[in-house]
Amino acid sequence: MPTTRIAVLTGDLVASQQSTTQLLYKQLDNDLEALAQRHDGAWSRFRGDGFQLALHQVDAGLDAAVALRAGLIAASPADQRWDARISLAIGDARWAPDQSLDDANDAPFIDSGRALDQLSDTDRRLVLAGAGPAEELVVRYLDEMLDGWSTNSAQSVALCLGEPGITQARLATLLGIRQPSVHKRLQVARWDLLNASLAYFRHYLLHNDLLHHDLPPITTTETQG
Hints:
The protein is α+β, with helices and mostly antiparallel strands. The chain contains 8 helices and 5 strands. Strands 2-3-1-4-5 form a 5-stranded mixed beta sheet, sandwiched between helices. β4, α3 and β5 (126-128) form a beta-alpha-beta unit.
């Protein structure tokens, strides 16, 4: 069977035991299904709060990771914050969307799983396996940006990612708020910077080989006091 380049996202929910589990899983399943349909892929959940999403539209890999986290944060109840750790890997695979993910063991599935294992030992929630040093820094910045989002910011971004090119007037209608308020929410969410970063990564994911079977450790920078 010929190989094709795919994006694989492997993730797990953060603090799902403290969440309204049934509603949280429903939100996650709905978002995974929407992304799989939008970007020619398939998804599965495992061990309760673990999940995987494989996409043939490889350039949408980071968009999908951000959209998943935005959707969870946006849907969070007032007394909880829903989120997920997500690792993204890109590479050639023999897997096709009509095949089960349960037994998929091509290189991007392995790299994505290994990167998630490393991620669980840090305070980070987003990683691109095999990224170059500059791209790794941008992903770390985006990760921290998402950590700082309110539910309002996440909701606005989720809608922008779900409907590319959406106008602020339409956003205002969907959100039930005035257009100046939409503009303010997008400013707070740093949407222009995020959108430009995602556009860069669409090109980067298409044209770079990111498979590294001996992945370097995922580290965090500690502030010296």
